Amino acid sequence: MFGFKKWRRKRLMKKPFPDQWDALLNRNVPYIQHLPSNLQAKLKGLVHVFIDEKKFEGCAGLEITDEIRVTIAAQASILMLGIDDLSSFYNDLRSVLVYPKPYVVKIKSRHNSFFVQEGFQRRRGEAWSRGHVVLAWNEVKKGASDIHDGQNLAFHEFAHQLDYEYGATDQVENNYNNESHFLSWARVVGSEYQKLLQAIKRDQKTLIDDYGGTNLAEFFAVITECFFEKPRELKEKHPDLYQQLQNFYQQDPASYITVS
């Protein structure tokens, strides 16, 4: 099963990249222009794999176009540029649902064991453990347009998907205070998360967006955005955290993404 999938993905990686897609990438995903030439070529191959394997569904009347597929696939694939084993590439992801703009969902919040309050929440995107990523198209384009602001919706939501697949934050929760299994990842990420919480309490300005203080899963998604869009600043101010993310993603964006 995995052998066939790996073979098929290798074939897709070698497919010629359409000129129209190339134009879309350069216009909508300027991040690619900062990548070394070998990573640019690899990214285009991964875009082929992503589009071939993942289903795109338009919501609220949105028609799925090549522009939507290529723009989203490229940003999802940037997170995976460090992989060499093509048997693993968003294997649990089944579909990408795309709304034209932020959407409203009905939510339930439990205040105690007897009372549940219903309400509505406006969202730009989300990732579900069942293998679906949901994105607002206008926010995807906005996030991709500025590669230095540390705000990228696609990076954020696909980081959540990787968290589901690899258990990145589960390792922190399970091992942060466990002396006998004191993993480096858990120690560093857990410590940086606590530092952010303290900084938020003190109303201190931080490089890491304070939305990361919501919970560990959001912290991982937020530091992923920062790692790819503000790598040099993250490496300077949080070197241990940068090293852990570099190990996780097997990439070193600080070597090619310059400070804005």
UniProtKB/TrEMBL annotation:
Superkingdom, taxonomy of origin: Bacteria
CDD domains the UniProt entry points to: Peptidase_M90_mtfA
InterPro entries, per database record: MetalloPept_cat_dom_sf, MtfA_fam, MtfA_N
PANTHER family: MTFA PEPTIDASE (PTHR30164), PROTEIN MTFA (PTHR30164:SF2)
Protein name: Zinc-dependent peptidase
Taxonomy of the source species: Bacteria, Pseudomonadati, Balneolota, Balneolia, Balneolales
